[in-house]
Amino acid sequence: MTEGKKNIVFIVNPKAGITPKSKVIIELLAGNIIPSSRFIPEVIFTEQAGHATEIAKNAIERGADIIVASGGDGTVNEVACALVNTGIPMGILPAGSGNGLARCLGISMSYALALRTIIRGNTKLMDVATVNDMLFTSIAGIGFDAFVAEKFAESYIRGMISYMQIILNEFSAYKPQTYKLTIDGVSLEKQALMIIFANSDQFGFNTRIAPDAKVDDGLLDICIIKKMPVSQLLNVGYHLMKGTPVKTGYAEYYKGKTISIQQETDPLMNIDGEPKVVKSPVNISIKPLALCVIVP
Fold first, then answer.
1. CATH number of the domain to which 49 belongs
2. What's the CA gap between 280 and 266, in Å, rounded?
3. Owning domain of residue 102
4. Distances (CA, A) of 1 to 90, 141, 178
5. Is residue 295 part of a domain?
6. What integer pLDDT is reported at residue 38 of this predicted model?
């Protein structure tokens, strides 16, 4: 490394932010936002699922001082997989659809402002969690949430409008399921539309499903959502945006460190926005203060 300068590696998912957005990132790097007197920037594009983790591991081996995830929550997740318990700071340049963790951390959706946050380099330690052996930084969900995530992943259209269209198309036909949960040793049986395991406060798009969740409290917020009539969808959406879902009467909350779910079949889950089939029994646990992140 050049004396006195920090190596900063930008891992860019071109599919998350679409290519023109990726070009904007490079233009900003080439301008005066990243001072060449202090940083040696490197931009690497991902090529397939899981590639961001490989790039980040290689960057660590090459002595990177800062690694930046440029994409959505899925890209952030992949980069975090390599950085957990290393102490190397992870920056976030939000370029996805929902950008849930970035919004929760107060990171600007403006590339220029997010880059300035990264340059300032203020850091904090945050919790991460695991579903069996899969890491998540923000949200994991089971039920309708995972079903919608799978449909969204198959869609060519990104953004909030596409997400809402899927919900409206699929909601009426989706049947609630019964879930057997154990939270810190206490057993529950609940019929639910979906259950969310929240490290951060939101899905993304500023929809705060778990308004009391904190990324550094050593706990997960467990949100059990009952199915509501179609006529209540707009009201529920309003309260999600306001961060008051409990006022709908359809949301019930618990907090815990370890959660298990017993299902007869291997369930589909939403892991930081990515749909994945998980082996039953599902074991979810928190890893306190395991990830160093750059925050405003």
1. 3.40.50.10330
2. 5
3. 6-121
4. 19, 42, 55
5. no
6. 92
